[in-house]
């Protein structure tokens, strides 16, 4: 038996609020999802006027960031034709989103959950996810 | 062309907070989802210690309540063997949850979204969804 | 943030060995799966001459027993026509197995994983899963 | 009528143990799956701290290595844009993993099953799968 740590609902809602604040600052409405250490959805918000098709993508980015303990931005490079993980997006019933916007949340070196953001360019999604993760880490 | 009305993210988060308050009052942790008038997920929260298998169910109940503009409790009766809609749970890629806990949100006679709750018995789920919907309607 | 406990791979292999021993004793070859506290597969074994169609079912029973913190035997009753959870087998992309053979593994009152068994009648599956869970609990 | 040969559960568990030993030697925790000559899962183990997203991938690599009687490393080249099998990862419900880490197990020239490994780089996955297959062949 092992003892592990995970985000809880309070953490998840805090991370989403931090993401919404960043998205409002830049003017790009976003879908934001947070999963726990087991990859299970804890909380989600779709900002008004953001893309409907991004619900699934935001959740998939959060899931992938925890499933492989990596930023999906890094996964994107590994999943290009010719790279190590080309084809990974077909695994796990299509849940592995391989573009920027998914960021693991850590406590020290341990991944305790992840945030996924979708609604703009890869750079925009990534910057909102990063801002939320970093503001959460600062406490 | 038509003008329609829908819940927005603020409404969805308010409904979820009302649902959480009711679930805390009764001591049964719940998964709570809110969809807009288009049936698209607006917000979601999984309370600590609630069932992991209820993420999909809460979202499915909210979706079904809007998809058919009916409480899923009523849908349950219609979906029994021998009844009119027997088999409906196999439609729409399995998104039609046919047990109690999905409640449409209305403005006057118009459905503007729905809430779905999962985490306990049908009666418990239904009472949290109803309480949230009614408290929201009172404003 | 929360601290939780989960089965590890060693535990999972022990539980499978206990299940195999029980299945050999009764002469019914089985598929046996163990998931961790997050519902994620830890270990699996398909005994020689057991059903190929039971791979997915054993994994689904283990998943369901953790997803709803309940023996799937109890879930079976709740999922009958007219009962509270009728239709639940259509949720979660068909992963919710609603017949006997899935048993949560607990540490005190906390569910830390689950075992799922498939290969015979509901009674046979259940008795192997129960035997493995109880032998594991005795340590 | 034909007589065929296949790995059995004992073989599969031996191969997994050999893979775990190699993974422990190199310090990269892995997911390891073994399928029989029919492509059906025989045994699986997810080592502690290995990726959750690799459960499906390890199983998919083992399946693909038997489905096409080829190392998935070789399949990767054939599945690149412009190559003969481009698009193959979309077939078979997404089960065809097209990156390194799946290795057929042979008796003489006959494929009798396969092992799939996932948890690190392509090179790491491949080397664990190869080590396990070769140690098993040596007996």
Automatic annotation (TrEMBL), chains A, B, C, D:
* InterPro entries xrefs: GlcG_carb_metab_protein, PduO/GlcC-like, PduO/GlcC-like_sf
- Which SUPFAM superfamilies does the entry mention? GlcG-like (SSF143744)
Q: Which domain of life is it from?
A: Bacteria
Q: Which Pfam families match?
A: HbpS-like
Tell me the protein's name: PduO protein
Origin species, per record, is Sphingobium lactosutens DS20
User: Where is the organism placed in the taxonomic lineage, from the top?
Assistant: Bacteria, Pseudomonadati, Pseudomonadota, Alphaproteobacteria, Sphingomonadales
